[in-house]
Write a structure and sequence with these properties.
146 residues, alpha+beta, HIT family, subunit A, five-stranded antiparallel beta sheet, 3 helices, binds guanosine-5'-monophosphate, binds zinc ion
C-alpha cells in the first residue's frame, strides 16, 4: 500500500522496497511509513524511516506525512534504544545533493552512537555570530512564514 500522495517512482530504490520489489530488513511499518535497516550501517541498528509515498525532499512535504514519519522515527528510536542500548543516537536527514543526500526519497537516519565510534557530526560553527548578522537572516525567514 502506498497511501495517498505522489505515485511510486519506478526507478526509486525505496519505492521498490515499499512495494516489496526490492529486499530490505524491515523493522516496522504502518499505512504511511516504513522503517528498515540501512544496507551500509555506520553502527549496528542504523535504521531508515521513510514515507511510503515518494517525496524527494522535505521542501515539498505536507505536514501530515511529516508527522507520520516523525511518529515512526520516535517509536523506532525508542525501540532501538531499548534493544541495543547504544550510548546515544543521532537523527539525521539529508535534503539535496549538497546536504549529502544520495537516495532521493525522503528518509530519516536513526544512527545509534557509541563512545569512540569515530563518527564526527558537527552542527555548529566555531564562532558566535553577531546580532547584526543573525537578525537580517531571521527576518528573511520570518517573511516566508507569514
Ligand atoms: P543519504 O545519503 O541519502 O542520506 O542516505 C541513503 C542511505 O540509503 C545510505 O545510508 C545507504 O546506505 C542506504 N541505502 C541505499 N540503497 C539501499 C538499499 O537498497 N537498501 C537499504 N536498506 N539501504 C540503502
Ligand atoms: Zn521513492
Amino acid at each position: 500500500m502506498t497511501g495517498v500522495g505522489q505515485p511510486p517512482d519506478q526507478d526509486c530504490i525505496f519505492c521498490q522496497i515499499v512495494a516489496g520489489q526490492a529486499p530490505a530488513t524491515r523493522i516496522y511499518e504502518d499505512p504511511q511509513t516504513l522503517a528498515f535497516l540501512d544496507l551500509n550501517p555506520i553502527n549496528p541498528g542504523h535504521c531508515l524511516v521513510i514515507p511510503k509515498t515518494h517525496h524527494v525532499t522535505l521542501f515539498t512535504l505536507d505536514s501530515a506525512t511529516y508527522e507520520a514519519v516523525a511518529a515512526t522515527t520516535l517509536k523506532v528510536a525508542q525501540a532501538i534504544q531499548s534493544a541495543l542500548q547504544p550510548g546515544g543516537m543521532n537523527i539525521f536527514q539529508a535534503n539535496g545533493v549538497v546536504a549529502g543526500q544520495t537516495v532521493f526519497h525522503l528518509h530519516n537516519h536513526l544512527l545509534p552512537r557509541h563512545d569512540n565510534d569515530n563518527l564526527r557530526v558537527e552542527v555548529h560553527g566555531l564562532q558566535p555570530a553577531g546580532v547584526e548578522q543573525l537578525e537580517p537572516i531571521a527576518e528573511r525567514i520570518r517573511e516566508q512564514l507569514g
